[in-house]
Amino acid sequence: MKEINKLSMVYLLCDCNNFFVSCEKIFRPDLKNRPVAVLSNNDGIVVSRSNETKNLGIAMGSPVFKIQDKINRYKIETFSSNFSLYLNISNRVMLCLESFCQDIEVYSVDEAFLCYRNITEAEAIKTAKKIRACVLKQIGITVGIGVATSKTLAKLANHYAKINSYTGGIFSALSDDKRQKILIESPLKEIWGIGPSSEEKLTNEGFKTAYSLSKADPEVMRKKYNINLSRTINELNGIDCIESIVDSDCQNQIMWSRSFKNRLTKIDDIYEALANYVSCACEKLRSLELYAKKMALFIRTSYFGNAKKYSNEIAICLEYPCSDTRVFASAAKILLDRIFVDGYEYAKAGIILYEFTDSRTFQSDLFNKAPNQSELNKNNNLMNAVDKINKDNKDTIYLGALHSLTKVENKKKDKINKDHFSKRYTASFDELPEVF
DNA sequence: TCTGGGGTCCTAGGACCC
DNA sequence: TCTGGGGTCCTAGGACCC
């Protein structure tokens, strides 16, 4: 007899609550029940909030200078973002999730889809409860879990669980009545894949909720909008049509960019910053054992304020792909010279490496544009040695563009602001938490 | 004074070819 | 002077995500 009530595919979307803030709270039990916020690079805006901070009306993305008085008045504890800590905690959470399910798609630093085949709703919910308890006990992080037959519905169910405390952090949209319930209660903007632009267009067409959108004809909407919207409509109806979101082996680009703490006006200062970004991006490129053939570079003034605005981007294609910091740094110099215009106050710059090939299988070409194999090996060995030395002792070796500095770290502090930096509790032995 | 950073995917349109 | 149409490839820009 065919087993009844077994579902061919069920997704459990596990999402860590207030992730960055939760990471900081693990090592600071004194912050329990207190308002906490994690700030972006440069301590510019709020990127993660504890529930207490949310209740004070601090919005995601609030510029810090606009809420400074609230921070003081309510004694909101603020942290500069500490990515090495968050990545480390993230890895621990993912390891814990993997102990429950082999078929897992890590979607971002704080969420993952667990894919189960041929299970019942009761089994799915029982598993979700175990997972939630386990992550909390082992790592000290609270996860919300949405359960559904499509990823888009699992995201909605997860959001529903988060904002309705009666759910205990878990909501299943597997049954028709529950699915209908979350569709009716979810506004368009909560749907995964519907951003501000689509929301506006769809609202103008008379769609109000996820439910009304789910009743639209996917084919008609595909012609009118695009293929993604027709997929979303199918997904809202529980039809699984987003195959895999994880493309782990083939990242297509590496970007490195930062806003400057202070506006920069001189080309030399901007080049110095860019050389630094090139150095970081190339180090990442080498760690992935990739070569890049193209690099784009951009500079821009601030979007805000009354100062004159300027923004430009330019790309270069190398004669042969490589991962040599010196090659990309020279290219950056040429590109910056082309687009830099005197007289502006620059707020941000960045570089993007793309068109990758596998450095392990790269062959020197027939037309001798690329260095021969022994030269390539020599360059690779040099760069790998630099990486190894820097790994043990950061910034021991750096680019000629930074030679004018006595200490790179000191100079960096001039440009990037991190006034509220927490310790790297899990990533550095010098900063392990102490137990009294 | 101070407004993040790092990604992916889709589409329209230009360039080029026959 | 007349100025096709279809295919492919590339790129810029828009939209979205966390």
TrEMBL record:
This is DUF4113 domain-containing protein. PROSITE patterns: UMUC (PS50173). Residues 11-195 form the UmuC domain. Pfam families: DUF4113, IMS, IMS_C. Keywords: DNA damage, DNA repair, SOS mutagenesis, SOS response. The keyword DNA repair applies. It comes from the Bacteria. Belongs to the DNA polymerase type-Y family. The keyword DNA damage applies.
